[in-house]
Input
Amino acid sequence: MNRKFNPFMKTIITWSIIALILSGCQAGLTSGKSPVTSHSFPKPPKPKPEPMAEIFFAVTIPAPLQTGETLVLSILDEVTGLSINPENHLLQKGDNTHYYLAIPFALNSVVKYRYIRQGENAILESRYDNSSVRYRLFYVGGPGEVMDTVTSWTDTSFSGETGRITGKVVNNDDESGLSDILVSVGGNQTLSDSNGDFVLEGLVAGTHNLVTYSLDGKYQPFQQGATIIPGKRTPVVIKMNPVPLVNVVFTVIVPDNTVPSAPIRFAGNLIQLGNSFGDLDGGLSSVAVDMPVLTPLLDGRFSISLMLPVGADIRYKYTMGDGFWNAEHESSGSFTTRQIIVPSSGGAIQDYVETWQAGPAAPILFEVKAPDNTPPTDIVSIQFNPYGWTEPIQMWPLGNNQWVYQLFSPFNLLSSFEYRYCRNDQCGSADEIATSGNSKGREVVTSLKPQDLKDAISSWNWFSDNKNEIDLKDTVQPGIAGFLAGVELAASYSPVWRPWMPLAFQDIQAMGSNLVVVSPTWTYQKQNPLVFGPVLGEDPIGVDVSMDINTAHALKLNVALFPQVNFQQPVDDWWTTSPRDAVWWDAWFARYRSFAIYYADLAKNNNAQMLVLGGDWMGPAQPAGVLADGTGSNLPMDSETRWSSLIAEIRQHFNGQIYWAIPYQGIEVSLPVFMDALDGIYLLWYAPLATTDQGSTSDMQAEAERLLDTQVFLMQKTYQKPLIISIAYPSISGTAKACISTGGPGCMRWSSLNQPNSRNNSLEINMKAQEEVYLSVLKAVNLRNWITGFVSRGYFPPANLQDASASIHGKLTSSLLQYWYPRFLGSIK
Output
């Protein structure tokens, strides 16, 4: 799956055009008048209706409805927001637990829907683990029927028996496995791995509708029934047909009050059209910065040419914001979401936006003056809170740190709301100081009269252009041939990061780095049965990782791929509370295999130089593994054989360097018994170098040297493997102690301060303390030619912040590395 567009270049080009056109045009913005009366064009004729097919829905619910309740089939609009613009249909009762309904749809539609118990409140259907059903899928290939079974409701608990589906999705042309295909069965969803394999747990007995769906539409949806037997596994093999791409040109007439030269975006239901397929802030799924931007035509219309998959069901709308804010509406005020089934010949679509407004309230103009020290590469974003913070939207620049955004809708749904400003879409992290963190935003009440709100941001939270520059005079000995000096990205992700990744890689390159370590994640979603895989909207998928690797390569950076893991509870607690019996360990090894090979394939396909496996969470799964309390983890007797076989299999997928990440734990450094099969050691270094907050640099250097010589060197000498030191120290006083106080016994992990969670009022932010620890370790490393690399961990890509986290982005330590790295690599003598 390849995204052909480049969101970063799209953003740069768009803002360059806006800056040129809008410079000095504030009066045009406030008047809301367009230089061209767009609606002077005749309204284009309605498109020819698509052929229709009737679908019969039959659903079984777990228990009779309560008095006064009805059962609703809710057809969802993912472009606007799953819960925002549903089309609800009342089902007809057959008996107490069986309901029916027939609905016509356009042929080749992909219907996203779920069931709701409607009484005083709307109760969504839920899955076996009591989480709500995101949606079910049905592909309208012709007239048909679907037999559904509701597992339970969000106000009840499910305690019955379940079965599972295991399967493989392949390309029907060549039988190759297809990765990142969305598989939907009975309201449960997962993605296929790089071999096309998938597992779906927790399916109740009966026949369910199984649908596989390509996130970019490049494969025709597949659909069949799947019978589930409790306690059993249902195997399936699914063959999907690739479809060609054709050019479709969309041209739209916009209202007279369209803001001059504001970006008009094409919000759609495919991943290349801005859909994250995840649950984002405020119940939205789409991200404005990932939506293609239309080009203004000389006659006042707007146009975009898209290569789209033949036969794909495209749901879309035009917007000056995202799918919810500032999107087009019907004259009645209802949301507009359009549909086309892409014809085999491509073609031209003529559209007409009725209005940007919804409700009687007049538009609101937000004008804000950003601080003078705002970085010139930053963009100011605005975030709205009607019922919870929604995804940020980039404002429009006027120059001289002046930014504007005019909001038209949906004022029919709210009479008042909050808003706040942030940098680079990182609301909650790179906030204006007045509304930072969880504090209330600025308040606004809608009005029948136009409003012009003029704000000024006094300062940005965790940001200063005064870095207290350091005087660097150290003599640096060049590292050995092939020495690696790099930066490891934070093991985190958000769809709004995409435009900022190229700038982050440029910053890393400017430090003199020759290596960037990309850290994509999968999430452990459930312990028993074990569910492990990417969560859309929270973990990147292959196309995101590929774009990062290719961007780094374009800047002549070597790339290591270090896949890591998200847990929904503290990692030590997760291991302790897991079953860890023979069946569970079988599932763990099977899922970890999928994880490792998925990223081995990504590394190979994108020419990454290195794959780093392991991590500080892996101890209980390695031979002789123990839990945090020192007890055994009950690993299978053949765990060593399993690991050796897995490493050998990974070698068949990736022929680059494979390193093993192992944490330095203070007393000894022990590597797994299968280390001989690997190429190098990636030592995760968060070692205590001082016992007080006031340790001197020379004392810390001496302690680093002692630990390296008495413990790390012995390990390296034993295995004779290249060794990279990868360090992380938060920017706080006392960071050299390598213990962030919990207020009780024990220490917090350094990663607990990563954005967007870097808030702990008991900690004193201290940039100098981080820099001094780095300097101590750098000097110690520089004297030891058996160390083959040095990496800084936890880099936060989308914004430079002087926060408490271990990220060096925009901090003193980045200046330190900018001095040391070129000298380590011999490019500066």
Q: What stands out?
A: The chain has three domains: 52-239, 364-456, 484-824. The domain at 52-239 is CATH 2.60.40.10 (Immunoglobulin-like). DSSP finds ten helices and 45 strands in the chain.
